[in-house]
Amino acid sequence: MTPTPEFEGVVGSSWRESTPWWPPDPVVPTDAPNVVIVVLDDVGYAQLGCYGSDISTPNIDAVAAGGVQLANFHTTGLCSPTRACVLTGRNHHTNAMGRIADLALGYPGYYGDIPRESGFLPEILAEHGYASIAVGKWHLTPEDETHAAASRASWPCGRGFQRWYGFHGGEVHQFVPTIWQDNTAVDPPRRPEEGYHLSEDLADRAIRYLGEIRTAEPDKPFFAYFATGACHSPHHAPTEWIDRYKGQFDEGWDVWRDKTFTRQKAMGLVAPNTQLTPRPSWVPEFSRLKAEDQAVAARFMECFAGYLSHADAQIGRVLDFIDQLGEADNTIVLVMSDNGASAEGGMKGSINDARIHNGEPAGRRELRARINEIGTESAHNNYPWGWTMAGNTPLRRWKREVHEGGVADPCVIKWPRAISARGEIRHQFTHAIDVLPTILESIGIMAPEKIRDVEQSPIEGTSFSYLFNDANAPGQHTTQYFEMFGSRAIHHDGWKAVTFKPLAHMYDDGLDPEAPFVDDVWELYHVAEDFSEVNNLAAAEPERLAAMVELWWREARQHQVLPLDNRPMAALLNPRRPFSDRRRAVFWPGGEVLPEQVGISVYRRNHTITVPLVVSETLNAPPEGVLLALGTVLGGWSLHLLDGRVRYVSNFLGSNVTVIESDEIVTPGAHTVGFSFSTQGEGGIATLWLDGKVVGEGSIERVTLFRHSISGAGYTCGWEQGPAVGPGYQAPFRCTAQIQKVIVEVDGPIVHDPKAEFDAIMAEQ
User: Fold this and answer.
1) pTM
2) CA angle 475–479–482, rounded 5-degree value
């Protein structure tokens, strides 16, 4: 927002000697287009229909058919850094988002807070009369700033958007999400049993906001940022959408990959001489899996496909509404993915990512037994590595890495009024940082020198509007560095040098994560002719490789990439904001979800919970409802009343549920409910108290070491987010007794497991 200009009227002693004057409204560029940017999550190069997939994505395909499809579009390889690039036009390290904020480091390129010098697109557009809305995933705010007492300066409405409806963090449960409206937590409008799904809700909200804009300002251009949760895990979709793909993936990832590659060549997406990269040694051959495991793997992919197709339908609803407004012709629509397909489901696939976070992945026997749960609200599923490999066809590797499988991603754009091309493919190199300058140039405005009196850093992207109507135009983005967790690459004039740096011994690749960076082996590819990085020319072109590596170092120094750091635990051992080791916390009933990492830590610590409450004499049934809860059906615990009895449920990673219940009824009047936990080994003894008397006791074999909650869940008081932690009740299960407060007290130091903490954070990106 610009400062108020100097008054140009006349102020006299009264109105008779005065002349009024009003500051001018922002000047809207002539015939300014609307702008819609759709960001998909974890969708690989080969997973959209227009990129060769047999997954149905007709609405995204229609965008490609109505404009141009970028065959050589690139990202950072990870969600938050890419989104920062899109919204600012600067590289992720320039944005202090070299990683996600949850793994920030104490260096300028890794602080996790995007500086004010990197102005956001809606901040720029506001100065030119645009209304801007954001719907869906944000993940540009550190987790420790996503609670009720946070400043909200880095939330969407603090960075230029007038309205926001969506979620913080890397992922969220698609049937029971934690949702924010502007700066306030809100409940989803429906429950899962009422047919709720987040993608539909986001589309509903986008349509509502756009309708409100048009009612109030018929001629005001708008910018809509629509960031679905799809297709990040959990791969949730309505049953009928999953069922559409029954049997479609039974042949497995190797056959699917071959067929997709054939389609990609036939449609001209990749050159005829492009080679399919070999299957990595750590990805099993599908035909060698047992029949039961093949069925599980196919089910995982059916859920992903249903999830993507369902999201595509919701994108279509938003675009149809813009058409209904009569504005489709002058609306720029860009649809992209933030990184390559995700390998976070592991070799076998995951039915509950909390299990992976805590080092307890489900085995083949359990996956077979629970095959019908995959894709439902009781699961948090992600497909196995084989489908990740296939999803990035024909490219090498995947998300979080800087070979093309991690950084080459789908992107389609249409603008009927200005892009005459229809269904044409463009092969010029482009990058996420190019999106903002392309939008600004298309509108006809310049990036400002200041935003809110803050000097702006230079835009680092290059507009690609030059290729809209000229397939043969020379590429203008000629040099681009990449870095993610120590893996590095440099693209320059059709060549690419790249080196992979492992975080840990995650795959059987024979590389030592602790090897000095100077010992890393660089590869060299002529990607203008070898897009899939099959033919390593490092030995044949040593001088070119040396020059490329030196160019990478120059770019790294210029963009705050250094120091290189691939240590998995570095950010956790020296955190951005250390976890508060408070020994006492007070919760008040009815408040919003408190992020688990912001609240008090009870992991494997002796602790007590004290709840003074009042049961009304007029209550017509025994009191019931949640007193305090943490987590969901995927793992956690809940202290509650059920049929008037005090009850505690411990859910170890969705696989081992322990219920402890009192044998006394809580009668009308004032009472104090208590709970105590004494650690013993990996579990402990839980005791229930009522007015100072022991009313229940039991042994809990194992408790979660780190992070019960995933998908946006956390502490709730007086209600539970759900799906319910344990049996016997359904969330939100609001308490019918009057809770005065809930006091949690702990004893002993915080138990840290840095590896588990790192795995948890990484699995949520």
Assistant:
1) 0.95
2) 125
